[in-house]
Design brief:
The structure holds 3 protein chains of 3 kinds. By secondary structure, chain A is mostly helical. Chain A has a single domain, classed as Up-down Bundle (Formate dehydrogenase/DMSO reductase fold). Chain A has 13 helices and no strands. In chain A, helix 1 packs across helix 13, helix 3 runs antiparallel to helix 4 and helix 3 packs across helix 12. The relative contact order of chain A is 0.18. Chain B is α+β, with helices and mostly antiparallel strands. Among the domains of chain C are: 41 residues, no CATH class; 265 residues, 3-Layer(aba) Sandwich (Rossmann fold); 123 residues, Beta Barrel (Barwin-like endoglucanases). Chain C is globular. Chain C is of the alpha/beta class. The chains are: A mainly alpha, B alpha+beta, C alpha/beta. At the A-B interface, helix 5 and helix 6 of A face strand 2, helix 2, helix 3 and strand 8 of B.
Chain lengths: 410, 206, 824
């Protein structure tokens, strides 16, 4: 998932007098190759069947939907953070808005890509528009996501109009405010895909929406921080350290809010001691404990770095941001797998190759042990392809779109 | 009318005849089981939980609950799973399903929905079961449909017709004179996970 | 892409609504309408899709009548056949019957005649396809070669048939006419013999109609699990419990699926059932709750038994010139306070000892039983069986509840060394409490291999048990152990007979003896000593594995034929042509018979031969012949009353005068040992000291008792490779273990465990169940060797533990130890 940032970082050492250094071209090439391999693997997945993934009836979503959530978060968060200065007329990082919008668009495309590769019948996608069931949170999400994508493109287009002097900054501000709202909505609705299902104890919480937004904010802020520091290092932009510090403090606060929501949710689940305590046990001591504790440690450490002024160096901030992104990714895994980990009907039956992946070692349909899901190589491959698509878009954007990344000095 | 099923747990012996006749009648692909008989007890079928002084075991036939308020139909983005208002049967259109598996995630009844994770494979090289049974499709979700093809002809679903213990009853829950309604009026019953508010049309006599 | 909205299969939503509305209207009109509609639809369906519906049956265990739906020459569906005329809904089909469509075409089906590739070892798994001509030529030349050199009996035949149980007429004919020796299963005979001798019939297969169960107020299931082994029994029991307030009592070491349904579950130390039965009998006698009138009328209870020789005192003992048919049993008639005869006495006394008749001291057989019961006081019984005294008393009270009661015995208690004693011990209770229904019979078919005009033909083949094969193949003879026989006061040593029979060739029609006989390693070792092994079967199995020629047998749906089940006569149609190159047993026997020059006996086709099978004197007397039965498919007959019980005296007998074994090989059997029921501990599975019997020292090494219980989705090994059924069970052999025994050995749920003793080992997956009695293991039965990680359940069991009374394999009489398997 860090391919985008990695790609950006990869090109960083290159001297950047003009658009498109050698590094950028290599990045584009690598992304294109990975994407083509990913598409080929997707075809393999479609023709040979999704049985090649680690998903099964009792863990019917996996890596793709985890990454869908993650990228929706990145996308929304990035846009929110970069739009806030605009929206509220604050002084920000100069002209990073364009690149932030573009990276949001790329992340949105990646997110949509993950939904598409997760579908059993992508050729039937058109049905979404013909037989739309407006009751379905997935339908809402599709609508919001499409709106968001279109709006982002308009937003970017508006900037280019502004550059051409054909649009006022007020108009940009209006668009940025709308974009902000939609970005929040996008992630909330994504949360609803999970939280509106009463079937999974872990998911069914009103906190899921705000919590997703908090996650979007912290990992979006982290992404923006990494990107701007990288761009500054590459000499493409310049900004005040004060801005970075402010943003770093915001990141720390958002991360704390994210952890706070998690803590609230766990306490609410676990305290009555009913089935909710199974969820808490699953996270803290059960199959998902490695993810849970990695998340807590990452986010905790990030907060320490970000709150202690001495540690708030550029390197420290980049490290803290990476830790937050890793923590949020772990959280996505916890949410997705955790939702399936505890079956509602815990009676025994025979498992088979369609019910769970580890069916031969576990004798019972519902009494499985360990993690119910783990991705297979093909899922990593397809996922890499989808991420590479995003990377490719990003790099092409950097290369060809007027993102104002060059030559701006303080 | 609302078709429903009443299953007498006292009469269920866990024989899984219903599972097998369901597989045959609907020509279910390999590894797809619409209708399971679960064992409440140990971790494997037909094993008891509890202690040797008081071992406990109860079999639970579980398939789609054909809820009055189904979680699955709400979330399907294209209406491939839908509630037939005339019969109360929650139905499934394989030729419409886009394979997003929202319904699998939304259904609170673990294991009743199945996804064809690969091209449907069969043990016989000819179609088993009812001639008018639905054709199964790769990468689509399926589940018990109350043997719609049989019910439409006035027959009983396969699991009801061939239940060894005579534990299964099928009929119109809206009709107070139907066998199922009478059983519910006279016997003590329970339902699976009523707390989800799905209002299942499957009742278990206890 | 064509997308038809709201369409399922060929049925449009609109059409569905229309029909359901019509159905709803009909359903309100009455239940009968639905049936009519269903019938109507069946015809419509047939017209629409070229379907035909054939009567058939499932030959997994009992022969349940089914309907097979046939489309394009394939069985696509089976369903229970409605049985017209049955007193209650008697439709029956379990998961096994429902899986027939895939059984017929399963991957493991034997498709063509196969020959072991020349130069390869037996069991090496190298096979080549041959033609039927070549197969039959090879088989026949081998038969002729061995028979001419070593005598006709050197060719042995397992003739129970590939489509057990009833299409073996021509096989028996072949076996008898060709004078092959006969391989006996040596299995399940304790129950047969125990019930035949005491009650004149086996509750299930013999006299009574199954719907009798639904009339019960108290029902005891003793030593088996009909929910699993005869699943169609269950609804009668459930009916009794639901509508008749029947109390269900289950006696079993393990609390399994039927135990869970019980009002009273009694866990006994394995193999101590006879002690429990006799202990209960003692309580019932002491409390005066016996049904004396029943015993006076229907049992041997009042018969006087001579002390001198233990035989009943007969009229012919007292009077000269009494014709055998006019003979009578002497009793003491309380009405006249004098000696009388059972046929005329008004009040034959049950409890009387020391009657002097012509200088002979006689006692009533019932008083002898009461003396025997004195050996089973409640404390001793409780010690032996481990059943708390309080539970025994509750059990006794429940047995004496008002209303109808009966005890349903099964093969579980048959599978111990002293299985006969257990069965006869339980039968005592049935007799004392007047539970045994009136004498009656159900109708069966003739499978002797001869029609009624040919019965003079010498049909008796040499009866051989699988346990004799090793010695016969090695030394050409088998010597039975010596025994002591007690006649009255005299005891004498009797040498066991020596059977001389060189064996060269074995033809196995059906079953899978290598898998299902005890001590599998020994069976394989012995089988490999045959010069030539031929196996005919439907599915590839352990027995086929070590054969030289394997023949593809046809299923019932490909052959048809008659079967009788639970008061019904069924005649299956040939629903489809045999798949691949499969042939019926009839055709295979005909080909072999003709090939060895006995063509004159094999002139009839299957249909003609079935005339001899169905048109017996008994059946024609009640108006049944093959053609009418074939046309009807199923005819409900119920049970036919008999004038007397089919025991040796025509009365229910807890006392046996001069019993002989029902299956005789040449063994020595002491009749006095089973004159009255008694309990002895199992021959091997006796790990405790109780009731005056020391524990088997072997138990120090092998402390666990292993039983191989029946399983839902197979009958022995049959149906066990049907992929449809395999989906319904865990994908490999399992053993159920009490959590405490597992924990003591560091075994967790789902681990592989190795069960072992001096005979062999079996590796199976541990499934923990609190319903398994501590100290016991319940391993799956019927998985092929190739389906095990290592060994096989019958590698553990013994061929040597044979009670010569029956004789009978003691599958459950087996001690083992268990350890976690390390994968080696």
């Amino acid at each position: 998932m860090t391919d985008t940032t990695a790609a950006v970082a990869a090109k960083a050492p290159a001297p950047a007098p003009k658009k498109g250094g050698k590094g950028l071209m290599i990045g584009i090439g690598v992304c294109a190759v990975v994407m083509v391999v990913g598409i080929a693997l997707w075809m393999v997945q479609l023709s040979g069947g999704m049985v090649q993934t680690g998903m099964r009836n009792l863990d019917s979503w996996g890596f793709y939907i985890t990454l869908f959530m993650f990228f929706v978060g990145l996308s929304a968060g990035g846009l929110i953070i970069s739009s806030i200065p605009n929206a509220f007329g604050m002084k920000g990082f100069g002209d990073i808005s364009r690149v932030a919008i573009w990276s949001s668009i790329c992340c949105t495309c990646v997110a949509i890509g993950f939904v598409v590769v997760d579908l059993g019948g992508p050729l039937r996608l058109w049905e979404l528009f013909v037989y739309s069931n407006l009751n379905s949170p997935l339908m809402w999400d599709i609508i919001v996501l499409s709106t968001y994508l279109i709006l982002s493109i308009v937003y970017l287009w508006a900037y280019s109009r502004e550059d051409a002097g054909k649009m006022s900054h007020v108009a940009i501000r209006v668009i940025s405010i709308i974009a902000l709202v939609v970005a929040v909505a996008v992630h909330t609705v994504t949360a609803w895909i999970f939280s509106l299902s009463a079937a999974h104890e872990f998911w069914h919480t009103a906190l899921m929406g705000p919590w997703f937004v908090a996650s979007a904010l912290d990992c979006g802020t982290a992404l923006v921080l990494i990107v701007v520091i990288a761009l500054q290092k590459a000499g493409r932009i310049a900004f005040d350290r004060a801005h970075m510090v402010n943003l770093a403090k915001m990141l720390a606060v958002f991360t704390c809010v994210d952890l706070y929501f998690f803590a609230c949710d766990l306490l609410t689940s676990g305290f009555p001691g009913g089935s909710g305590s199974d969820v808490v046990a699953m996270l803290t001591t059960g199959a998902l404990a490695p993810f849970f504790w990695t998340q807590i440690v990452c986010m905790g450490l990030a907060c320490v770095i970000l709150f202690v002024p001495r540690l708030r160096t550029k390197g420290g901030v980049v490290l803290a941001s990476a830790l937050v992104i890793a923590g949020v990714f772990c959280k996505r895994c916890e949410i997705l797998v955790g939702g399936f980990q505890i079956p509602n009907i815990q009676f025994a039956d025979v498992a088979n190759s369609f019910t769970i992946t580890q069916w031969e070692s576990g004798m019972s349909l519902l009494g499985y042990q360990g993690m119910v899901y783990w991705p297979t190589p093909i899922e990593f491959g397809v996922a890499a392809g989808v991420v590479a698509l995003g990377g490719l878009l990003l790099l092409l954007g950097i290369k060809y779109l007027p993102l104002h990344l060059t030559g701006k000095e303080k | 009318m609302r078709y429903g099923m009443v299953i007498d747990l006292k009469r269920c012996s866990g024989c899984k005849t219903c599972s097998v006749v369901c597989k045959v009648a609907n020509n279910l692909p390999n590894n797809i089981i619409w209708n399971r008989v679960l064992t409440e007890g140990g971790n494997a079928p037909d094993t008891a939980g509890g202690t040797w002084e008081n071992p406990t075991m109860q079999h639970w036939p579980v398939a789609c609950q054909h809820c009055e308020n189904p979680a699955c139909t709400k979330v399907c983005p294209v209406g491939a799973t839908w509630k037939d208002a005339e019969t109360g049967i929650v139905r499934q259109d394989y030729d419409k399903c886009i394979g997003c598996r929202m319904c699998l995630a939304a259904c609170p009844y673990t294991g009743v929905r199945s996804f064809n994770w690969e091209e449907p494979a069969y043990y016989a090289d000819f179609a088993l079961g009812d001639a008018d049974a639905a054709k199964h499709e790769k990468h689509t979700v399926e589940k018990c449909i109350f043997c719609t093809q049989r019910v439409a002809k006035g027959e009983q679903p396969a699991c009801v017709a061939d239940c060894i213990g005579r534990a299964r009853h099928f009929g119109d829950l809206d009709d107070p004179n139907s066998e199922v309604s009478k059983l519910l009026a006279t016997r003590e019953w329970t339902q699976l996970h009523p707390e989800f508010g799905t209002k299942p049309s499957v009742y278990y006599l206890v | 892409m064509e997308l038809t909205q709201n369409t399922i299969g060929n049925l449009s939503r609109r059409g569905f609504l229309k029909t359901t509305a019509a159905t709803a209207a009909l359903a309100v009109a009455g239940g009968g309408a639905a049936a009519g509609l269903a019938a109507l639809d069946q015809r419509t369906a047939m017209a629409d899709s070229q379907e035909k519906v054939c009567t058939t049956y499932c030959n997994a265990c009992m022969g349940c009548p089914l309907e097979a739906v046939v489309r394009d020459g394939n069985v696509v569906l089976t369903r229970a056949k409605h049985i017209e005329g049955a007193p209650i809904d008697a439709k029956r089909m379990c998961a096994r019957g429902a899986s027939i469509p895939t059984l017929i075409v399963q991957e493991k089906r034997i498709q063509y005649p196969m020959r072991r590739v020349e130069g390869t070892e037996r069991g090496a798994g190298q096979w080549e396809r041959i033609s039927w001509d070549e197969a039959i030529d090879t088989i026949c030349s081998k038969i002729k070669e061995y028979q001419s050199q070593f005598g006709p009996g050197s060719v042995c035949c397992f003739s129970y048939g590939t489509t057990e149980p009833r299409n073996m007429y021509n096989l028996h004919r072949l076996e008898n006419v060709a004078q092959f020796s006969h391989q006996n299963r040596t299995t399940d005979f304790a129950l047969t013999q125990g019930t035949m001798y005491t009650a004149g019939g086996f509750f299930y297969q013999g006299g009574s109609d199954m719907d009798l169960i639904s009339q019960m107020n108290t029902f005891v299931i003793w030593g088996h699990n009909p929910i699993v082994s005869w699943p169609n029994t269950w609804h009668y029991i459930a009916d009794a419990m639901e509508y008749n307030d029947c109390k269900l009592i289950v006696v079993d070491p393990n609390k399994n699926t039927i135990g869970q349904k019980a009002d009273l579950f009694v866990s006994v130390q394995p193999g101590t059932d006879a002690a429990l039965a006799l202990g209960l009998a003692k309580i019932i006698e002491e409390e005066g709750k016996t049904d004396d009138a029943f015993m006076q009328q229907k049992s041997c209870a009042p018969f006087l038994v001579k002390e001198s020789d233990g035989r009943f005192l007969r009229k012919s003992d007292l009077e000269e010139g009494v014709a055998p048919e006019a003979d009578d049993f002497a009793v003491w008639d309380e009405a006249t306070d004098s000696l009388g005869y059972i046929s005329t006495a008004q009040n034959p006394v049950l409890r009387k000892k020391g009657v002097e008749v012509n200088g002979q001291r006689c006692n009533t057989s019932y008083s002898l039983l009461v003396d025997r019961l004195a050996e089973y006081p409640i404390d001793r019984v409780s010690e032996i069986t481990t059943v708390p005294a309080e539970t025994i008393r509750t059990f006794a009270d429940m047995l004496c509840r008002p209303g109808k009661a009966d005890i349903f015995q099964g093969y579980g208690i048959d599978h111990y060394g002293h299985g006969f004693n257990t069965i006869s011990g339980v039968s005592v209770l049935r007799i004392m409490l007047g539970m045994v229904p009136d004498a009656n019979t159900k109708f069966g078919f003739n499978d002797s291999g001869f029609d009624e005009t040919e019965v003079e033909h010498p049909v008796v083949s040499q009866n051989l048990g699988t346990f004799m094969f090793g010695d016969l193949l090695e030394a050409g003879k088998y010597t039975f152990p010596n025994g002591t026989v007690t006649m009255g006061q005299q005891t004498m040593e009797v040498p066991g007979a020596t059977v001389e029979q060189p064996l060269k060739m074995l033809i196995s029609f059906g079953a899978n003896i290598v898998n299902s006989a005890p001590d599998c390693n020994k069976t394989i070792e012995d089988y490999k000593k045959f010069d030539f092994l031929v196996t005919a079967n439907i599915e590839w199995c352990d027995t086929a594995d070590i054969s030289d020629i394997v023949l593809p047998a046809a299923t019932i749906q490909e052959v048809g034929g008659p079967i009788s089940i639970d008061g019904c006569l069924v005649y299956g149609e040939q629903a489809i042509e045999p798949k691949f190159e499969a042939k019926s047993d009839h055709d295979m026997a005909t080909l072999i018979g003709r090939g060895i020059g006995l063509g004159e006996w094999f002139q009839e086709d299957f249909d003609e031969a079935m005339n001899h099978v169905v048109n017996t004197t008994l059946l024609t007397s009640v108006g049944v012949d093959k053609d009418t039965l074939k046309a009807e498919g199923v005819r409900y007959m119920g049970a036919m009353p008999l004038p007397a019980y089919m025991t040796m005296t025509g009365k229910l007998q807890f006392y046996q005068e001069q019993p002989g074994p029902i299956e005789y090989y040449g063994q020595v059997m002491d009749p006095s040992s089973i004159a009255l029921p008694h309990w002895e501990p199992p021959m091997e599975a006796w790990p405790v000291s109780a009731g005056g019997f020391e524990a088997n020292p072997l138990a120090e090494k092998y402390p666990l008792i292993v039983t191989a219980g029946t399983r839902r989705f197979r009958v022995h090994s049959y149906y066990g490779q049907n992929p449809l059924l395999r989906e319904m069970e865990i994908n490999e052999p399992c053993v159920r273990i009490n959590p405490a025994d597992a924990e003591a050995r560091g075994v967790a749920d789902g681990d592989y465990v190795r069960l072992y003793n001096d005979r062999g080992e079996a590796v199976a997956k541990a499934t923990l169940s609190a319903g398994i009695r501590p100290g016991c293991l319940d391993i799956d039965r019927g998985w092929q060797r190739s389906q095990y990680k290592k060994g096989c359940n019958n590698d553990l069991t013994s061929k040597q533990i044979v009670d010569w009374t029956c004789p009978n394999y003691a599958y459950h009489d087996c001690l083992v130890e268990m350890e976690k398997w390390d994968g080696q």
